[in-house]
């Protein structure tokens, strides 16, 4: 009995020592800042503006309010590019610091210069933070107006990158495999996208949802089929392709570009390549269907190939379409050259 009791006591002492050591280790760790960062909260397109009440009511605040009304490009209905929430600096703590997009605006008279600082992953994973600092309300208003295109693009691209990263992790394997097997690149599609049509070097993917349809076109052909690389030529090329490959539900109907709405064109870069971007509205000739689209064209001169990536949205019952356009843009920008 004595030996048994001694054995129990030894176990108790050993357990006590382990507990004490664990407490010391935990206490030591809590004295150091944690490297853990939570995932950013909020949906793509949501923007948290941190600006003092006094400054919000100055000329700088008025300028920022006007800028925040900028519309998302090429939608059939007006929709602001950002859904904003505004708070003062004293409120900027706890969960507010983990917002997906944060715009910090401040006036500091003793600063040596006016500037905008851009940060990714500042307090959370997938977060974009822009800090706008100026010495007076007048200088702040001028700085905001001057830098707004870049600030706006910074937040938009952060949203697209975050969405594209998520598609790399959870994707529709059959759609990904089809692109890998038929093109010299890979694209990642979120769950729900399926191959609708494949003919030659043209592939059509779509995702049917309640009250909406998201579509992706992938096409590759010889550069010789394109005379010049300008807006008018690309639009003609696009319309010819859609007429031949994307029929409507009615006999003789087909998808085309809405010619009564301006189509924007610009140069952009992703996947280490320079692309030409088109944004506008599509319609179905011979039917009452339409919506927004985005196209990317790449001239692969080394291999004499033209690559066209296109995304479109059909959501007649949805008043807000920007979130869907962000989704198809993010799919296109998952492209990786094999």
From TrEMBL:
| Membrane spanning residue stretches | 12-30
Pfam families in UniProt: DUF4837
Q: Which InterPro entries match?
A: DUF4837
Give the originating organism. Carboxylicivirga marina
Taxonomic lineage: Bacteria, Pseudomonadati, Bacteroidota, Bacteroidia, Marinilabiliales
Q: Kindly state which keywords UniProt assigns to this record, in alphabetical order.
A: Membrane, Transmembrane, Transmembrane helix
State what protein this is by name: DUF4837 family protein
